[in-house]
Amino acid sequence: MLDVRGVSFAYDGARGPGSPARPDRLESRSHVAVREVTVVFERTQLVALTGPNGSGKSTLLKLIARVLAPQSGEIIFEQRNVRDWPAKEYARRVGYLPQDPDPAFPMRAIDVVVSGRAPFLGRFEWESDADYEEAERALALCDAGDLADRYLDEMSGGERKRVFLARVLAAHPRLVLLDEPLTALDLSHVQQFSALLRDIVDRTGTTVLYATHDLNFAAAYCDRMLVMRGGSLALDGTPSAVMRPEVVRELFGFEARSVDGWLVPRVQPQTPSGRIP
Amino acid sequence: MNGPWKFIVHRSAFIVLLALCCARPTSPPHAVRRVISLAPNITEIIVAAGCQAKIVGTDNFSDYPEAVKGLPKVGGVEPDVEQIVALRPDLVVASASGVHPNLRRALDAVHLPLLVIRTDRLSAVAPAIGEVGQALGCPSTSSAVSLITIGLQKQRRMRTHPPRVLFAVWTDPLYVAGRATFVDDLFSITGARNAVEANGWPQYSLEALAAHPPDLLLYPNHSVTAPAVDALLRRAHAKVVAVAVDENVFTRPGPRVTLAAAELNRILDQWERSH
Amino acid sequence: MTGSSRPRRIIGPIALLTGGLLFALIAASTFGAAAVSWRAALAGDPTARAVLFDIRLPRALLAALIGAALAVAGVTFQTLLRNPLADPFILGVSGGAACGAAVSTALGWARIPGLVSVVAFLGALAATAAVFLLARRREYTDPTRLLLSGLVLNALFSAVILIAFALSPQSDLAAAVRWMMGTLFGATWSDVALLGVFVAVSMAILMTIANDVRMFAFGVDDAKARGVDVERIQRIGFVVSSIVTGAAVAVSGIIGFVGLLVPHLIRLIWRRDFRVLLPLSALGGATLLVLADLASRVALSSSELPVGAFTAILGVPFFLSLLRRSR
Q: Do residues A141 and A60 touch, judged by C-beta distance below 8 A?
């Protein structure tokens, strides 16, 4: 479904946070965020994108979402280059949720979610009753049906994330891209949200690619895990292939051991003088 | 006396002596030989009183009589105190309506006396000449004063049907001369009636101009142009006779008030003849 | 399913605000410095006709157009910049216009009817162009740089204005200062027609891109991902808003408060997105300015006060009461 082929992208610090460097100066003085990444996604997959901060996870998601354009390589979605897809049509099929979404003005949840139907509207069209029904269905799917009439600033972090997930789902996309949806959620909400994503993938056949820092929850629910480092794709495999102490040591830089399928950091015992041997 | 007290008394005496020698008097000295005028009407008043030779510098706007134009200029709204000092005057004379609030302090700091003269109303002009003449010791003071007084008396008119007159100082928006102003005094003396009821220099509404148009509209010939007046009258849909008057005479309370009154009388007489 | 989350109709608020505007226009035409009646005007009395149809009515309509222009520009800037504190003057438009007016006053051009307005409009356009050029980075217009450029240019313009005023002839100065405070004196039907064209065209263009503009409220990246051509929409929105603001300022001077607070007033009452806020803000801004101009004309019997003072006097208490009642 989605074919990422040798994609690279560098930010030009002097020109602005979202602006790409000029193609001929890819390596010069600018920050290469994504380096020759090649990966293929099929339908009905829950894929976790992990890696240290600055490894290029957000940039990769933005490249797939068409927020940024790659400087080399190409991204093929359903046999067509992403560049060649009309913007609105692509937006109907690929949903994107950026980190920390924060609408500038107070809004009700239902209005936030129904705005996810925007790619289906013509220039002068208003949302129809059918669009509102889709919005309500999306909220129900995300276990947020009772939040419809509440205002965003009255909600907890977990509730807001669910509303924004519903907004992405309201368009029934085939591919969902989520940039760190689990940060700042408490443990029960992380579990609930992860279970929700699993449920959506299984029920609707959508592919969900989400960036996360929590390896264990990702491993518990995902079909596949990608690990990025320094802009390159370091590892692409099943959770059991990725969740190994040697992987953690090499890619994340700390010692861990496997306990019942969970990766637990190895804590050094302390000497009487307080120093680590 | 014992030690400390002796010290204090001697020190105090020293300071008092120092102050006595070095302090300068702030009241005008008896003989004023060099004077600076900070307003065009003050300049004309000094000249009318007979002390033109004593003027060593004026403000930027003084332009009458002709000879005054060549004198050194010391500034406009905020006169340059350094330039004033450089001209070494004995006295600085300013008009009460144009004096900058900090001027007195600035001149005190350089020990220059400042004389402020009130000239905002017609009745203040003759006393102003007298006050200035006395301060400067001018020869023609009394004759100048009586010239004004008699001249104004000659221009006094009573008209059976006083024309309603409007004096516009600006057209967009319309600012006019109201009651209790110098221009209003000119109207009173020449037997005209000010179409404006409010005091001071208010903004006049276009509607009032349309609903109760005056008989005559007068405007100063430099600040206000004929096209501007035409535009104003067109917007108000008012057919009013508009006449330009000499700005330097009409808005400058000085010895030429008699000319202003005479010109006004001429305009009013002409209007009365054709109505 | 909750029935209350159905889309609410837009007709109600529009009808309400249109009614308010009509009421304000009628009031503004009825009251004023001269005591004339509608009956006399309709009967053919020339003075009454002149006052009502040639002085009061065009002035009231001009106030409505200016209020609409400023409110529309304000809501557009606030949505595109995602900044509730944005107003139509934030990108240097007012500074440029005021600079043009001040410099032409210093040169004595205020004595030629209409010239100051033209120079003010050109100043507004020049300022807008300058701000965009300063903020441009190849293909990318950063909103933060835009705001900073606007701020810096406004400061520069203030300096030029002060110098120009210091050098202006005293007689011309009072009128220039009054222009800076906002004045609708001497509004004519041709003013109404000219500004009417600007406002109508601008609103039409903004309504065309409204569906995309409202997506900015969720963030630029989000809007891009949803298929919005962010660069193009930003450019159109900013340019159209700046031009209509420049036209309004050229006619009447700088009237603050309307562009900043009317969109918030509308939002507090109706809480809808940009597509709805745009026409409602236009109507709300129009009504506020018509009433403010009426108040500025009748507050003192003998003189007119600056209209900008009354937009605040009328708008602020209303705004505060809404703020207190809101969640």
A: no
Q: Among residues B242, B120, B121, which one has the least CA distance to residue B171?
A: B242
Q: Which residues of C touch A103 (CB under 8 A)?
A: 217-218
The pLDDT-based confidence of A247 (bands split at 50, 70, 90) is confident
> How many secondary structure helices (H) and strands (E) does chain B include?
11, 9
In whole angstroms, how far apart are CA B203 and each of B173, B175, B207, C50, C304?
7, 4, 12, 20, 6
Query: Model-level pTM?
Result: 0.85
Between A67, A95, A107, which is nearest C221 by CB? Answer: A67
Q: Do chains B and C touch (3 or more CB pairs under 8 A)?
A: yes
Contact check, Cβ <8 Å, B206/C186? yes
Q: What is the pLDDT of residues C7-30, one digit of tens each?
A: 567 888 999 999 999 999 999 999
Give CA torsion, residues A134, A140, A144, A149, to 10 deg.
50
Closest by Cα among C248, C291, C244, C285 to C266: C285
**What's the order of all strands across the beta sheet hosting B55-58?**
B55-58, B35-37, B91-95, B114-117
> What phi and psi, each to the nearest 5 degrees, are found at residue B95?
-90, 140
Burial of A244 (0-12, 13-18, 19+ CB in 10 A): middle
Closest residue in C to B232 (Cα–Cα): C186
Chain C residue at shortest CA distance from A13: C137
Put simply, the chain C residues between 150 and 189 with a CB less than 8 A from any chain B CB are 169-172, 174-175, 178, 183, 185-186, 188
Q: A98 vs C221: CB contact, 8 Å cut-off?
A: yes
The Cα–Cα gap between C34 and A78 comes to 74
| Packing angle, helices B141-155 and B40-49, rounded to 10 | 110
